[in-house]
Amino acid sequence: MLEGKPVESWDPNGERNAHIQYSMGVGAKLPASFSPEIIQKYMALNQRTLGLECDVCGCSSTGSNNVKLAKCKQCLRKSYCSKECQKLDWVQGKHKMCCRPPKDFKAEDIIRAQGLESRPELNGSLLVVQCPSGTLDRWQVTMMGGDVTISMHKDKMRLIIPAEERLDM
Known about the structure:
10 strands, three-stranded antiparallel sheet, 4 helices, globular, alpha+beta
């Protein structure tokens, strides 16, 4: 059962927005307008980004297995238990087409807002990258399932799902 909490926020025009956000652990939030299936999919992807299990075979760094995991040195998103799993994901998986440095954003990437002081209610929310905002190191981002667009500095953004991986969703 998914549990959400009522949240009120204000859009840039001063309009009140009331919705439910689902906590996905480590502060990630999704709007209630998403179907339970989509929420479960994003929750699973969010768990992967925590680096607690191998992205190929699923073996865990917690519990009785206690496998030591290594992160991809370029993107720092993918975790692997062995060189074999890393090679398999690079060759047969889709990691080769979506591996890029953490602050190299593209349109349609899903990011998590973090460290926002002017809009703290958005911290932990998943947002969709739209385009560069025209100001150095800033991007236009939109709330998932909403129509509010804001400009955000890239240091306040954490890549969760690259646009290339969203094609499967």
